[in-house]
Each structure stands twice: as structure tokens, then as C-alpha cells.
Design a protein that fits this description.
The chain is an alpha+beta fold. It contains nine helices and 13 strands. A hairpin with a 5-residue loop joins strand 5 and strand 6. The relative contact order is 0.17. One of its GO terms (cellular component) is cytoplasm.
Length: 301
């Protein structure tokens, strides 16, 4: 059995490389997902998740995260949480609970404290200064919707087990309590050992309308490759949404199937990282072509 991992954004390369080492040593895919995401959560340079994440309108970093087990279909997620050092770890722990799998706000914080997870002030001085400057200049709608991006990961281990995970601080200067797609099953992620794992990144308000991970999984179950499934689902959706509303935010997906094949699609310039038993950790760029397919090329670092 092959192994593989795919993650959103070039900045996830370091964490994905660590996760790939775990998979190459026949480690479980759930561990690989957590390793990759915790690396991003701890790195303030990845400023849309975890420590150094983007503040909301009140200058507070509110965090969303999710974890899904493709074997049992178990889900764990938190939303609008604060001061949790590694939201992905809490989401993973919640996936083991029989009930109460998605916790928000104060409830998520209390669960993390009660179970001994590390707590940390997630607002860095640099991000606090950035927030203050935007407040003083009255940040525009463009400033807000162009500042976001979750880290999403899909991992396959040598035993054929798939897991997904996501973590994000969401839109810059979002309303207090706002929740995007990342912690919502079917909208921000979906994972099934019998088909594939899929995660999204982009503007949550639009991604929640498409249920793209669930639909892509269904297309793979019907026989399409991950790439063909991503193309078939994503581009008609973004065109239809634009036709109906007159606007569309960033919509990007990555998918990894049970056989190790992978795919991606995006309506913006989008980077992602892939590693398999046959491919060292590699950064790719994805961009929509004129024929509603995705042009993918390797980024030379």
C-alpha cells in the first residue's frame, strides 16, 4: 500500500515534510495530519492559523479547526475558540468522543483546559500592530476578504487509512463569533477510506454554499480520478455562484484518494504541497485553464 499527504499552501512545506517522514516510517495518517498542522499553528509566518493568526474586528484571534477519521467517519471540530495553542489537537481529541463533537467559543476553551491541552495567547505584537493600523485606516471590504487562508491536510498511510484536518484564524477583522467552512463537515472537509479525503481553503462564506468535499468524494466514488472530480465539481460551482450573486471569493480544494492519486482545483493562484512514497515533498501551483480544467506545475524553490 502506498502512502501520501497533500496540504494547502506553500507555507505548509516544512510541516508536511515532517509528516511525510512519519508516514514513510509507517506511522498513522492521523499523526501525520496533526504533525503538519501543528507546525503551521506554531509558526507566526503562517499568519492565517494558530499563533500569529489574523485578529477579528475586536483584535482577538478566534480559531476554527477540524479533524476527520476516514475509517470510522468520526469528526471533531472547534470554532470561535481562543488561546488554544494547537486547535487541531483539540479537534482530534473531540473526534474520539461519542457526543459533543463540535464545540464553539467558551465551551471549546473549557474543554481544552479540562483535558490539559496547552493554552497560549495567540495574538502576537506584530499582528496586534497590524490590526491597529487597519483600524486606523478603516480597512475596506477588499482588505478583509483578501486576508484569509486555512491550512488543510489530507493524509493516507500504508494501511490505507485516510484522515483530514484543517486549522484557521479565518477572515481578518471578521465579526466576533464568525465561523467559516473549516470546521463544518461536508463544506470544509470530508474523508472516507472507501473513496478519498478532501479539504478546502478560501472564502468560507462561499465555500459553505457548495459542499465541495462531499460532492468531490461522490464523484470519485463514481469512478473519476481526484483531479477530474475536482475540476468537475469546482468550476461549475464558482461559475454558477458568480452568475447568481455577481461575486465570488477564493475557492480552492485538494483531494487525495485511497489509491494515492491526488488532485486540486482553484479559481485563484493557489499553491499546495504533495509528498508520496514516490514523490519527495514538492510544492505545486494550480490555476484554472480556459477549458475548465486545472493547470498544475511544480514550483522551483
Amino acid at each position: 500500500m502506498t502512502w501520501g499527504i497533500i496540504s494547502t499552501w506553500q507555507q505548509s512545506l516544512a510541516g508536511t515534510t515532517k509528516a511525510a517522514e512519519r508516514l514513510a516510517a509507517q506511522g498513522p495518517s492521523g499523526d501525520a495530519v496533526q504533525i503538519a498542522i501543528e507546525s503551521a499553528e506554531a509558526d507566526p509566518a503562517f499568519n492565517t492559523a494558530g499563533y500569529g493568526g489574523l485578529p477579528n474586528a475586536e483584535g482577538q484571534v478566534q480559531l476554527d479547526a477540524s479533524f476527520m477519521n476516514g475509517d470510522t467517519l468520526s469528526i471533531g471540530a472547534i470554532a470561535a475558540a481562543t488561546d488554544i495553542a494547537h486547535p487541531i489537537a483539540v479537534a482530534r481529541n473531540l473526534s474520539h468522543e461519542l457526543l459533543n463533537n463540535l464545540l464553539v467559543g467558551h465551551g471549546a476553551n473549557e474543554y481544552a483546559r479540562r483535558h490539559g491541552f496547552a493554552m497560549r495567547t495567540m495574538l502576537t505584537p506584530e499582528m496586534q500592530n497590524f490590526w491597529g493600523k487597519q483600524v486606523r485606516k478603516n480597512a475596506t471590504r477588499h482588505d478583509v476578504i483578501e486576508s484569509h487562508d486555512s491550512i488543510g491536510v489530507v493524509s493516507l498511510d500504508y494501511r490505507g487509512r485516510l484522515h483530514t484536518g484543517s486549522s484557521t484564524s479565518g477572515i481578518f477583522m471578521k465579526a466576533k463569533g464568525r465561523v467559516g467552512d473549516a470546521p463544518l463537515p461536508g463544506a470544509g472537509f470530508f474523508c472516507d477510506n472507501q473513496t478519498a479525503g478532501v479539504v478546502t481553503t478560501g472564502l468560507g462564506e462561499d465555500l459553505m454554499k457548495g459542499l465541495l468535499p462531499l460532492r468531490i468524494n461522490q464523484e470519485i466514488a463514481n469512478g473519476l480520478t481526484p483531479q477530474a472530480a475536482c475540476d468537475k465539481v469546482v468550476y461549475p460551482f464558482v461559475d454558477e455562484l458568480y452568475h447568481r450573486s455577481g461575486h465570488i471569493g477564493a475557492v480552492s480544494v485538494v483531494a487525495l484518494a485511497k489509491d494515492g492519486q491526488w488532485g486540486a482545483a482553484s479559481n485563484v493562484d493557489f499553491s499546495f504541497v504533495v509528498a508520496t512514497d514516490q514523490l519527495e515533498p514538492t510544492v505545486f501551483a494550480a490555476k484554472r485553464s480556459t477549458n475548465n480544467q486545472t493547470n498544475i506545475h511544480k514550483i522551483e524553490l
